[in-house]
Amino acid sequence: MLPRDSKRPLQPRSALRRRVLRGLGALPLGAVLNAGAAPSAARIVSLGGALTEVVYLLGAQGQLVGTDTTSLFPEAALKTAKVGYMRQLSAEGLLSLKPDAVVGTTEAGPPVVLAQVRSAGVRVELVTADHSWDEVRRKVATVGRVTGREREARALQADLDTHWSRVQQSVSNATRRPRALFILSHGGSPMVAGTGTAADALIRFAGGINAITQFAGYRPLTAEAMASAAPQVLLNSTQGIEALGGEAAFWQRPELALTPAFGRKALVVMEASHLLGFGPRLPGAVQELHARMQATTA
């Protein structure tokens, strides 16, 4: 125990509490509320299109000094300084923009690069990517915290949750669950989405069944395996279709003729960051995909 001061009697606990509260009252309100919180970052680099979208939705684009090459929306994001693809970053490129904070997902890397950025004194915030609605919520909360716009982030999340609930209710009312196959790219054999992928989660959110369950991740699929998968509808990105030379060229792939989707030419094409970004546009992407899958398999 500390020795009592014989000249100053020990104050009752209630008196001490009143003094503390008076002291807090003399401080600016912001200082009291933000005590212990990390300060907002004046210069931010965003790694991932979804995170960049949130920055703009929160009105924090004035703090954005750089983005990665997947940041394609809104159009203003195209004019930001680019640091490369989020999975193939360099410490030099990131640090050249003198950021206070770098915001990304656990898919960003390589990890050694992000470790170098941290050791240079830059705040690095990574959101766990698990292809869930909670991932979207974590992105909104993280950007709100880093930009100092937590109130705006809470309001945005409330709106998004309402939209998400409406979409999921609409999807649950459908009586058909079409078998869908997402094709990432075409090489010797098409590269398709198995379980544990963003495409797999999106198909399920939109009321479909992923035709590929025998493996996780993205792998090439033989013609025989595609015939066995028997997808009723095929999914692709606008970027993938453009790389092939258009939809007519897409349907010329011989393995597609072995699928139920071929007879109907059942193909849904959406822009990649909208389809797979898992950001604030996810409710709209799920709503659109659901409607189009239902229409093409009716």
- What Rg, in angstroms, do the CA atoms define? 25 Å
Mean pLDDT level: 88
Most strands sheet: 6 strands, mixed
User: How much helical structure, as a percent, in the residues?
Assistant: 40-55%
How does the overall form come out from the CA principal axes?
A: globular
Segments where pLDDT lies below 50 for 5+ residues?
1-36
Separation, N- and C-terminal Cα atoms:
80 Å
Structural class of the helices, strands and pairings?
alpha/beta
Name the helix and strand elements from N-terminus to C-terminus, one letter apiece: HHEHEHEHEHHEEHEEHEHHHEHH
Portion in beta strands: 5-15%
DSSP, total strands: 10
**Tally of separate helices:** 14
Summarize the entry for a quick read.
By secondary structure, this protein is of the alpha/beta class. Helix content is 44%, strand content 14%.
